[in-house]
Amino acid sequence: MSEQIPLDQMIAEIATQLRAKLGVRGKDLGTALGKARHRLPRRIYRQALILVRAQPLAGHPKLRLTLDGPALESAAAEVSAHLEAIDLADRRKGWWLGMLGGLSFNLILMAVALVGFLIWRGIL
Q: What angle, 0 to 180 degrees and rounded to 10, lies between the N-to-C axes of helices 69-84 and 4-22?
């Protein structure tokens, strides 16, 4: 019974971190993880899937004994460490810089096309 409480707490903490860092919503870790699938590295996603698959077994007293506690703890630690390393301000700044870079590229391309058109028509 002592293993169920830490596993449930680890899963709840990871679900809370997913909501805070990636902005995904879900009632449990499985639905939140499904929405955050493409934002996570493959290795981290697989580690989180291990926790999702172990969650129903942790609720049953006899099936809980079949779980590999150290593997679940290491998976939870790895997922939690990755989520803690996400810097929200840096992600926001990167999004803005990416948007401004794309916009500036389009403006430069439009200016080149306009100059090319004016040269072709003989105006320049």
A: 20
